[in-house]
């Protein structure tokens, strides 16, 4: 086996070990896992039933709300990533891992893999609840897979933004400062309401929100009635652009931790 192949195998093994470590944490903290799955369902029901005036999630708004809530949940996943990374930093866990003979990026890969697996579960739960409420994807199975792929791509971009911000913040207490920004930015989108119903300047901001492109493209691929086509490429390019910025920033910041 060549030196490069041995190095790659070592890195993959270490990354899988870190992923298993994160998955084992699920078993030790099942309540947190359940909360992460139930919280988006509560948001869906709240905006569908309570904010909907008690009339229930029905008609066109149901077709509009479920894809939007899926996109919103992918954005809010940034907070969970930040909390997990800052907790490990604060307890010195990452420093201990970095002192061990293991691939330097395995810690980040394990964090990313675990968060993406959890995001798959969240999407499955929300789709299941949406289906129970009467929502249906009308675009066919390939389009359904494409929509899920766009959601996970957006989550992957948010994940690396979360890792970078966590490495910059360093302490769990700083996550609250980021939450003050994440929630307004998340709701400043077309996840819950159409830009046409907003004042002109606000609608323009909403249309430029990367999450709005993901939500619109997902509605189109799900075949939602009245969905606006033509946003799939924007829903791909925005996350890829965010990844091009924040992935190297996170890797560079992580490499500087021990300096």
UniProtKB/TrEMBL annotation:
PROSITE patterns referenced in this protein's UniProt entry, alphabetically: ABC_TM2
Membrane topology: Multi-pass membrane protein
Key words of the record: Antibiotic resistance, Cell membrane, Membrane, Transmembrane, Transmembrane helix, Transport
Domain ABC transmembrane type-2: 31-257
Membrane spanning stretches: 33-52, 64-85, 106-129, 141-168, 180-202, 232-251
Domain of life assignment: Bacteria
Subcellular compartments: Cell membrane; Membrane
InterPro entries per the UniProt record, alphabetical: ABC2_TM, ABC2_TM_bact-type, ABC_2_transport, Nod_factor_ABC_transporter
Family: Belongs to the ABC-2 integral membrane protein family.
Name of protein: Transport permease protein
Organism, scientific name: Streptomyces bluensis
């Amino acid at each position: 086996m060549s030196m490069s192949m041995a190095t790659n195998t070592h890195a993959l093994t270490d990354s899988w070990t870190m992923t298993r470590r994160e998955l084992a944490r699920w078993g030790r903290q099942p309540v947190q896992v359940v909360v992460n799955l139930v919280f988006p369902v509560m948001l869906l029901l709240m905006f569908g039933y309570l904010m909907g005036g008690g009339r229930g999630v029905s008609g066109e708004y149901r077709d509009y709300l479920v894809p939007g809530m899926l996109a919103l949940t992918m954005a809010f996943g940034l907070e969970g990533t930040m909390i997990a990374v800052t907790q490990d930093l604060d307890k010195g866990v990452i420093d201990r891992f970095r002192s061990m003979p293991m691939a330097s990026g395995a810690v980040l890969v394990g964090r990313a893999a675990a968060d993406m697996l959890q995001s798959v579960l969240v999407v499955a739960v929300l789709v299941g609840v949406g289906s129970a409420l009467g929502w249906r994807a009308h675009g066919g199975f390939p389009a359904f897979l494409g929509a899920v792929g766009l959601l996970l791509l957006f989550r992957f971009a948010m994940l690396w933004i979360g890792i970078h911000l966590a490495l910059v913040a360093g302490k769990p207490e700083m996550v609250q400062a980021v939450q003050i920004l994440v929630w307004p930015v998340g709701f400043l989108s077309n996840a819950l309401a159409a830009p046409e119903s907003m004042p002109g300047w606000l609608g323009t901001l909403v249309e430029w929100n990367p999450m709005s492109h993901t939500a619109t493209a997902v509605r189109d691929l799900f075949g939602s009635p009245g969905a606006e086509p033509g946003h799939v490429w924007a829903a791909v390019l925005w996350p890829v652009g965010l990844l091009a910025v924040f992935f190297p920033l996170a890797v560079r910041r992580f490499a500087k931790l021990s300096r």
